[in-house]
Structure formats: structure tokens, C-alpha cells
Design a protein that fits this description.
Elements lengths: L1 H7 L4 H7 L10 H8 L3 H4 L13 E4 L4 E4 L10 E5 L2 E2 L11 E5 L2 E4 L31 E2 L7 E5 L1 E7 L3 E7 L9 E11 L5 E14 L1 E7 L3 E3 L5 E3 L6 E8 L3 E7 L10 E7 L3 E12 L7
Antiparallel strand pairs: 1-2, 2-3, 3-5, 4-8, 5-6, 7-13, 9-10, 10-11, 11-12, 12-19, 13-18, 14-15, 15-16, 16-19, 17-18
């Protein structure tokens, strides 16, 4: 963060002072001592020239399956998103193939909650008992009652990418992340639109050999509520987002549950969005976009 602040002129003075060892003292930890003791780009590289740090509309990391989408330069306050395919044997892995994060007004009203406070369990064979390290605590599907499995083979297959100034599309095949017999299709389509103040539409299409339960979820640290039209609100003030829900093949039910894990002093809420009855073929669409300031208060 110190390096990025100086490189991109973010103005995080205290962070730069600590992180670049300008304030190092006898309590400096081993990592900081290494930065101070050996020449490196963080301590020597100058700030970029004005304008050189402007961010592009998107960053696509094909090997990792990560897409970061930003609003147009003339809409700096609009909604941005990040989403991932990847696999479930990554460094410090979470079972989170298909996860995403919504960013608005400097907040993340809908998110991937990140790591838990480390305990012996975190780095043991019981790691994925954790409700935030397994896929229960991520905005991804639950298929036939099953969470995602762990391992390198539990990977998203990128079926399509289409990037334009108006919208970015990412289509993923998620079947390999679930150990479910008779799962013919599990396709997640992300469409990020730069129209207005931005929106993200997430559509999950599923097909089974025989009827099975199916649903998805949203995760939040923010306060939330239901709307009269059957949707959701999450966040508050300028960071409030509205969620429109639609389903093909069945009716939806929403179940809220606090995830009882210590996420550095906080507990996220899982908003389960499930089909009320088992299905052989169905689709759930979640459309997320900003609402008027104060609508989430």
C-alpha cells in the first residue's frame, strides 16, 4: 500500500511513512527490516507522472480468471465490480469459484467477505469447516445442496469474454467446482454495464438429469432490507445498491443467515436466493445497481 500510494500519488502519508521505512524503529518487524535493509523498487521508484496512473476500463487476468471492471472516466462515482473464475487450490485458497464484489462510493455493499481471524483450524484438515472459507460464505451457487469442492480440478472454464466500452461480459462453466452427479449444465454469466451509474447482471443457468435443489447467494457486511417488489436493498447512503431478482423454472425464496465466523471482529450476512422446489432446468438472474442516495438509510 505504501508503494502504491507513492507510485500513484494516493496521498496516504502515514501509510507511506510506515511502509517505506521512513519511520522504522526498534519495533520494526522482519518484513519491514528486509525492505529497509535491501534495495528494492518500493523504496526507490519515483511517483508516476501526472496522468500516467489513470486506470483502464478493465483488467483481465486470463490465467487467474479474474476480471475487474471500472466505470467510464467521466463517471468516477459509478459502480465498479470484480469477479473471478479460477480454481479451488489457490494460495490461501477459499472455495470461491464464481465469486464477485460490488464497489460503490468507496464501499463494498455486496462482497466476498475475505479471510477469517486465523486459528489452528484455519491451517488444518478442518479448514473448510469455516463458513467464510468454504463456498457457503461466498456469492456463488449451491447445487443439489452441495457446496464447492476443493482442489485444482475444481476450476471454472471460461466460455466467453466480450469487452466493449459499453459493457463487459464473462461467461463461466462452473460444473467442475461441484461434485454432483447428473449435473448437465452450470453456467454463470456476468454482464457489467457502464450505462447510467453502472450495473451488474449475474445469471446462473442449471440443468440436471433429475430434479434437484438449486440456489445462489449474496454476501454483505452492510444492513439490508427487502423491497415491496420482491427485491433487496443493501448498503446505505451513496453506497446503497438495489437488487432485482428473477427466476425461470420456479419461484424464489430468500433466507438471511448470519455467518458465525470471526472475520476480524465482524460477521457477514448470507442472503440465500433459492428456488422453492427442486428443478431439472432453471435460471436465476440477479441484477445489481446503485439506488438514489439515502435509499438504503
Amino acid at each position: 500500500m505504501a508503494f502504491l500510494s507513492r507510485r500513484l500519488k494516493l496521498g496516504l502519508g502515514d501509510v507511506e511513512k510506515r511502509g517505506l521505512l521512513l519511520a522504522a524503529g526498534i519495533d520494526t518487524n522482519l518484513f519491514e527490516f528486509g525492505l529497509c535493509g535491501f534495495a528494492n523498487s518500493a523504496s526507490s521508484m519515483p511517483p508516476v507522472e501526472d496522468g500516467a496512473g489513470d486506470q483502464p476500463l478493465r483488467d483481465w487476468f486470463a490465467d487467474a480468471g479474474i476480471l475487474i471492471c471500472r466505470p467510464a472516466p467521466d463517471k468516477p462515482g459509478a459502480m465498479g465490480v470484480a469477479m473471478k473464475g479460477g480454481h479451488n487450490a489457490e494460495h490461501h485458497n477459499h472455495n470461491d469459484v464464481g465469486s464477485f464484489v460490488i464497489v460503490l462510493a468507496g464501499k463494498t455493499p455486496l462482497l466476498d467477505p475475505g479471510g477469517e481471524t486465523y486459528t489452528a483450524r484455519t491451517f488444518s484438515s478442518r479448514r473448510y469447516v469455516s463458513g467464510v472459507l468454504n463456498s457457503w460464505g461466498h456469492p456463488v451457487p449451491r447445487v443439489a445442496g452441495q457446496l464447492q469442492r476443493t482442489g485444482r480440478s475444481a476450476a471454472a472454464k471460461v466460455l466467453k469474454t466480450e469487452f466493449t466500452d459499453q459493457a463487459d461480459t464473462l461467461v463461466l462453466d462452473l460444473r467442475a467446482a461441484y461434485d454432483v452427479k447428473g449435473l448437465r449444465k452450470l453456467q454463470r454469466t456476468f454482464v457489467y454495464s457502464r450505462a447510467g451509474q453502472g450495473s451488474l447482471t449475474v445469471t446462473d443457468e442449471v440443468e440436471f438429469d433429475a430434479p434437484q435443489t438449486f440456489g445462489t447467494a449474496l454476501i454483505t457486511y452492510s444492513k439490508w432490507s427487502r423491497t415491496a417488489g420482491g427485491g433487496l436493498l443493501a448498503g446505505s447512503g451513496p453506497a446503497a445498491v438495489g437488487v432485482e431478482l428473477a427466476a425461470e423454472g420456479g419461484k424464489l425464496k430468500i433466507t438471511a443467515e448470519e455467518i458465525e465466523e470471526d472475520c476480524h471482529g465482524h460477521q457477514p450476512t448470507r442472503l440465500g436466493i433459492d428456488l422453492a422446489e427442486p428443478v431439472t432446468k432453471a435460471a436465476i438472474t440477479v441484477k445489481i445497481g446503485p439506488v438514489a442516495a439515502g435509499a438504503g438509510d
